[in-house]
Amino acid sequence: MAEESVVTDLPMKRPREDEENGASAATEAMETETNSNDYISSVIPGWFSEISPMWPGEAHSLKVEKILFQGKSDYQNVMVFQSSTYGKVLVLDGVIQLTERDECAYQEMITHLPLCSIANPKKVLVIGGGDGGVIREVARYTSVEQIDICEIDKMVVDVSKKFFPDVSVGYEDPRVILHIGDGVAFLKAVPEGTYDAVIVDSSDPTGPAQELFEKPFFESIAKALRPGGVVSTQAESIWLHMNIIEDIVTNCRQIFKGSVNYAWTTVPTYPSAVYSSGLMLRGFVFFSGMIGFMLCSTEGPTVDFKHPVNPIDSNDSQSKSKPLKFYNSELHTAAFCLPSFAKKVIDSKAQS
C-alpha cells in the first residue's frame, strides 16, 4: 500500500504570454509532466487534464486547488484533489471517477434504474464501486436484506472513506458485506439464482476492468440472477464508444432472455467534453459529458425498465444518505430516449 502524500498547495504560477494564447497552447496540449503529477497540465499550470486513448483528440480539465492524496495500489494510480468548482475529485489512472458536485447523476441512475424496475429486491450485488456511492443508493430500499460489494482495490475503498464520507456512507449500513477481490472470480463462485439485482460500477474497459465488458462475465451475471432478475452496468458513451456499445448489446441480447435496454445520463465531468486537442481558452473549460448503462433482465417475470414499478421515496430510507439530488420517475423514463443515430444501431443489435 502506497504512503499518502502530504496535502500540498499546487504551484499556481502566472501563465506566460504565449500560454495565454489559444493557438500556442494547442501546440503544447498533449505535453504532460513525467513526475508523479502526470495529469497536471503543463499548458495551464495547476489544471488537471484527463487525456486518454479512449477519447482521442479531447482533454477534460479541472482547475486544481490542492492535491490531497497520491498513491499507487497493486492495480492503479489513485489521486484525490480539491478542485475549484467541483469539490473533491477521485482519479484512477488519470481518469476522473467522481466529483463531489456531480457524482449523484451517476450513482443514483445506475442504481435506481434497475432497482425501481422490480418489486421488493432483497439481495443485491455490486461489482466495483469501491467509492461506496452505489451501495449508498441501494441502502435506500427497505426491502433489501443483503448488499454484497466486491471491489478489487482496497485503496479505493480506504481513500473514499477518508476523503468522500458523503459518498462512502453506505459502508456504515449493517446490510453491507465488503469483499475485496476480483469481481469476475467472485461471480463465478456465486450459486445460481442468488441475487435479485447485480450492479456493475466499472471503470473503462482497460486494465483491471477489461474482463467486466466481456461475454463470459455477462454469462456469470445471468447465472447469478434469479428469474426476472436485473443487471445494470456502466456502458460507455454513445458519442465516443458506439463500437463498444454494439458489442455489449450483442452479447447481452444473446445471454439475457428478458429485456435488453440502453439508458443514459449526463455527468458533466465524464467524457464527451467539447474541447478538442486539449485547447483551453484563458482558463475557461466547458463540459457536456454523458455516460450510458446497459439494463438487462433474465427470463422470468417481465421487466419493463422504462416504467418504474418500485418508486423510491428519498425521505423514507434506512440509509444515512441525504435525499435524492438527481433521480426521479420522469428522468427514469426519459433516460431510455435515445438520439436517432444511437437508437438505430442499438435497436438493430437488440433485435438481431
From TrEMBL:
Parts forming coiled coils:
none
| Domain named PABS: residues | 45-282
**Reactions mediated catalytically:** S-adenosyl 3-(methylsulfanyl)propylamine + putrescine = S-methyl-5'-thioadenosine + spermidine + H(+)
- What keywords is this UniProt entry annotated with? Polyamine biosynthesis, Transferase
- What is the top-level taxon of the source organism? Eukaryota
From the UniProt record, give the pathway where this protein acts: Amine and polyamine biosynthesis; spermidine biosynthesis; spermidine from putrescine: step 1/1
The record's Gene Ontology cellular component field reads: cytosol
- InterPro entries noted in UniProt: PABS (IPR030374), PABS_CS (IPR030373), SAM-dependent_MTases_sf (IPR029063), Spermi_synthase (IPR001045), Spermi_synthase_euk (IPR030668), Spermidine_synt_N (IPR035246), Spermidine_synt_N_sf (IPR037163)
Family matches, as CDD domains:
AdoMet_MTases
Question: Can you supply a Gene Ontology BP term from the record?
Answer: spermidine biosynthetic process
**EC number(s) on file:** 2.5.1.16
Q: Where is this region: Disordered?
A: 1-34
Composition bias of kind Low complexity appears in: 25-34
EC class of the enzyme, as a word: transferase
| Record GO terms (molecular function) | spermidine synthase activity
The reply on keyword DNA damage is no
Catalytic center residues: D201
Which family does the entry's similarity section mention? Belongs to the spermidine/spermine synthase family.
Question: Do you know which NCBIfam families this protein is assigned to?
Answer: PRK00811.1, speE
Q: Which HAMAP family match?
A: Spermidine_synth
| The protein's name | spermidine synthase
